[in-house]
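Good morning C.,

I know you're traveling, so I'll keep this short. The sequence:
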Amino acid sequence: MCPQRPEGEKPEHTFRKKPEHTGMKKVMAQPACVDTRKGDKQLLEKSGLVPFYLQKNDYRIVPGYLRRRKAEKEKAKQDNDAWLTKQQETVKPLAEQEKQNILQGLKRRFNELNFEYQSLPFTISPSQHKKYNYKMFLEEAMSQMRSFDCWGFLKHKLAY
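The tokens, ready to paste straight into the viewer:
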């Protein structure tokens, strides 16, 4: 039987020896993976097999410049929406007589442009710059007239 000591009293000697300081540091083995059959190793940190960025403190935190840019975009969109609603409130529908007058004017102008375009020669040589430029002007004006669709019923009212 072992003699019992009173509580709080330490033994006079122990059989464990304290490690002596030898001046050598303990080296921890770095995790590595063997990538060939000959035993060549590659460190896991540099290989890309370890999720390095997931363990950073600022992972999933959106940078400040992106937050500012998003806020600027939202503000610009809200300003644009407010401007559009203000513009839509100021638009008044035209009377039927005004619509008919505008349609007749557009049709007349388109017919004039079309007549002038049809009266040009079939081929224009590059030396005739003035006629070529005039032809391009007429084509552009007629395409604008065709694409002009203010009320949704102009296209079939114009004679192509």
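Safe travels,
E.
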